[in-house]
Amino acid sequence: MIFNSAIFFWFFACFFVLFNFVFVDRRKIIWLLVISSLIFYGTWNYNFIALLVFSALADYLIAQKVEANNHDPVMKKRWLIASITLNLSILAIFKYNNFILQSVQEFVSLFGGDISVPMLSIILPVGISFYTFQSMSYTIDVYRGDMKAHRGFLVFLATLSFFPQLVAGPILRAKEILPQLVNMRVPTALNIRIGLLLVLLGLLKKTTADLMAGPVGVAFNGQADVSTFETWIGLLAFSAQLYGDFSGYSDIAIGIALMLGVYIPMNFNLPYFSTSPVDFWRRWHISLSSWLRDYLYISLGGSRNGKRARNQFITMLLAGLWHGASWTFVVWGAYMGVIVVVTQWLNERPALAKWVNSKNWLSLIIKIVVTHYLFVLSWPLFRGSSLEAAWTMIVDMHIPQETAVTAGAGIVMALVVAGLFLMHFVDALRIRYGDALANRQWFFWPLLVIGFTLFFTVGDFGHDFIYFQF
Amino acid sequence: MTSSTSNSKPNNSAQSDASIEREEDIRNARGRRKIGLYTVICGGLMILVSMGLVNIGIASLRYSSLNPFSIERIQATGDNLGAALELPEDDPREVVYVLGSSLIHFGFSPDLFDEELNAAGVPTISYNFGFGNADPSIHAKFARKLARTFADHPGRIDRVIYEFAPHGATQRRADTSGQLNHATTAILSSWGDIGQTLLDDPEEAFALANTRLFRSGVPAEAITHMLATPITMAKINDTVKDRPKPAPMDNLGWDLFNQLREDWPESIPFGGWSAQYRGGFPPTASPRALELSDQVMQRMQDPVRMESALQQRISCCDILGLEMSPEMIAHVIETIRYAQSIAKDVDIVVMPQNQDIVHVSPQGEENFKKALAEVVAATGVDVVDIYKEPYLGIEYFFDADHYTFFKGRSKVTQMMADHYLPQEEKETH
After folding, report:
1. In the structure, what pLDDT confidence band is assigned to residue B429 with cuts at 50, 70 and 90?
2. Residue-number span of the structural domain to which A462 is assigned
């Protein structure tokens, strides 16, 4: 059940009526939220509902044990380790099993060994990386004393399974959302309008992303016949597709939550206007970046003891692995680590200080273009089927191919660039003027009518959200 | 006493907490109702206005331009499937239903067909139920609807002639026909069918219901598909970019369209289904329309345009390689079986191809022969094979596979009718 489908529209309409008009008692509303979220999740594969509930129950109980052992640091730590081990084991079994087995097999064969390990045919539960991280952060927060263990499993389950953000984030911390579900604040009319605006922008971004699927497919699936120009079209289209798809999903999730009275922080902040890789990761998938910073980077020691570069590299490497169970994602993570460390080192050179701190338009544009180039360079790894295919594509990007450019490529490039720019432009307007716009209803509602008319008019067939696979 | 007092204090406190919580819940519920109502009214109105605007746009496309999605034609053919039920029970004429693709829609004239057969002493009344933008999976749904329409009147249709277009059942065609199949499925499915889909694929069922109820049968994907046509065509035309530019079409196409609308007020030239002409077009038109048609066809028959049209057919349908789709062949068989369930006789026709332009590869010929044999073996139908005999060249076509409105249509209809002439007539013909 994806957000831009007819079935979700009717699902949400029914839920909204029950949520606002039928139930009074907060416990019943929480039940409604849990049941609706599990139905929403079950439409992908109902077998994994049990896994989600198990994951929540385990962390709910462990967090209480952690808190109960506040007086005994050793036991407290053991319970925390139990939670982390359990969550990582779930990820290892359901997401990384075949990658681990295959890698072991290949490693042994490097030394002339031959072990034949049967691969497991386990389907990846949708959203597992998101809710596992969310659940894990709860026990860590309780361990650190950042929040108290919650008494009442149903509310905790509602927190973890909250359907707007269940399958593709943003990754929420329990301390952010749990109090909101306990209090069940009534949204204001302004919340509703901003929520609708976010839903509309998300839908339009998702539509734009889907339209990019064509040129992306040409570049990534048909290397033999693709010119250098079309390779670039495909890669820029992938920039637009990835951003439109994922930030579109996040916007819809945030908008829907806001319409229910739940505030979720923004997950993207104009990432393609970043002036360095570090800046990019502060603006892209903010909930993951901040999760990794708070629970991994800082746990590794952060920037203390002169180990910042090492810790940054490890964090980005694991961020790569979080995205997918394959060597392409590992190398992608390593590449991210390298560009983050190297560009930060360069930024700190006194000789470059003037350039780094310069705010003039030309230097900003150059920094934005260079940063975007560094990320475009990584897309063959992120989207490619293998390391070899990724390398071929990187070569094709830089060495002109003999294949002639097909007619229409110029129009496609213009449309791709326009799509990429437009999404950021609209986001920038929304960030700056969103509230003011929602307050001027005479302008707001007609604008929404135009936007929804556009959304209902244009569509591309059958595209799931890309980040579901993570 | 003491213990009683000490127990009652927490109880009182708990009761008081519960009552505060209850009051808060009631207050919140009131607030939620108010804000819910606001959302339903404002948001609902906004969605309704947007859907209204979309529907107005779609309707204007459907009814007033060149049938961009074939939706109007598909809907109209589906709505008129029971046309033969309006004939008197004792009507002596043989009822012939012709189903198929746009080759039938534009290439079969019920009037000419009946005229030739009536003259030969075989009284028939035929109907054209061809429509474009559909593959055999859609034909199967159409035939299912036909079977339901005539379920209580078995044998009322004497003959169904179903066109089996080789390039309509290829793997490439199957891979590229998603958007419009969704629209057609929405139009041709009954609510029972959509209910059945709900059990297997709830997302698809909701999408079908939405497309049918709120979008006049046209999904957003179909509009995008149409908007993307210039890019698709630019890529296809790339193959002929080094050749001399053909004479421009100017406004000739529109002039012809408008003239035909004037000449045939009862029939929407490219969409709709005219009861008067039994789904086809009148055999002839005004001299002005004929002259315009000649000019249009002449320009369309320019070798560069023809090559471009061929490339388009290669791109969408693998017209030369003909790698057949087993799934599509299964749908052809399904279509025939539905027709067999209500008609006395069912034939398949393989329509003439543009032999000046379309040179199917030997492997393609082999693939098609195999597929045809499979269909015949599975259903026992007779084949009206006018695929290559007699030779039809470019003069009968306005693109790679469609027949010209007058000359081509009349020739092809005559070839079909010839097949049903009595033996002695065939010999003299």
Report:
1. low
2. 190-469
In a shared domain, residues A205 and A90: no
With an 8 Å Cβ cutoff, is A188 touching chain B? Answer: yes
pLDDT at B4 over 60: no
Assess whether A165 and A312 both reside in one domain.
Answer: no
**Three-point CA angle B230, B233, B234, nearest 5°:** 80
Q: Both A70 and A180 in a single domain?
A: yes
Residues A202 and A135 in one domain: no
C-alpha angle A43-B144-B78 in degrees, rounded to nearest 5: 100
Alpha-carbon gap, residue B175 to A461, rounded angstroms: 12
From B226's Cα to the closest Cα of chain A, the distance in A is 10
Q: What ipTM, to 2 d.p.?
A: 0.83
Residues A159 and A220 in one domain: no
* Tokens at B83, concatenated: 């046309």
Under-50 pLDDT residues of chain A? none
pTM over 0.95: no
pLDDT at B109 over 90: yes
Residue A84: inside a domain, yes or no? yes
Cα separation, A247 vs A116, in Å, equals: 42
**pLDDT value at B6 more than 60:** no
Tokens linked to B89: 């029970």
With 0-12 / 13-18 / 19 or more C-beta atoms within 10 angstroms meaning exposed / middle / buried, residue A206 is buried
Percent of chain B with pLDDT over 70: 91
Nearest CA in chain B to A460: B221
Look-up of token digits 């100017």: B250
CB-CB neighbors (< 8 A) of A185 in chain B: 28
Q: Is residue A278 part of a domain?
A: yes
CA B98-B315-B393 angle, to 5 degrees, is: 55
Beta strands in A329-400 (DSSP E): none
Which tokens is B99 given? 């189903």
According to the model, what pLDDT value does residue A469 have? Answer: 61
Catalytic residues of A: 323
Identity of the residue in B26, B28, B57 whose CB atom sits nearest the CB atom of A457: B57
Pair A299, A389 in one domain = yes
Residue A176 sits in the same domain as residue A216: no
Within this chain, do residues A196 and A174 fall inside the same structural domain, yes or no?
no
Residue given tokens 């593709």 in the structure block:
A168
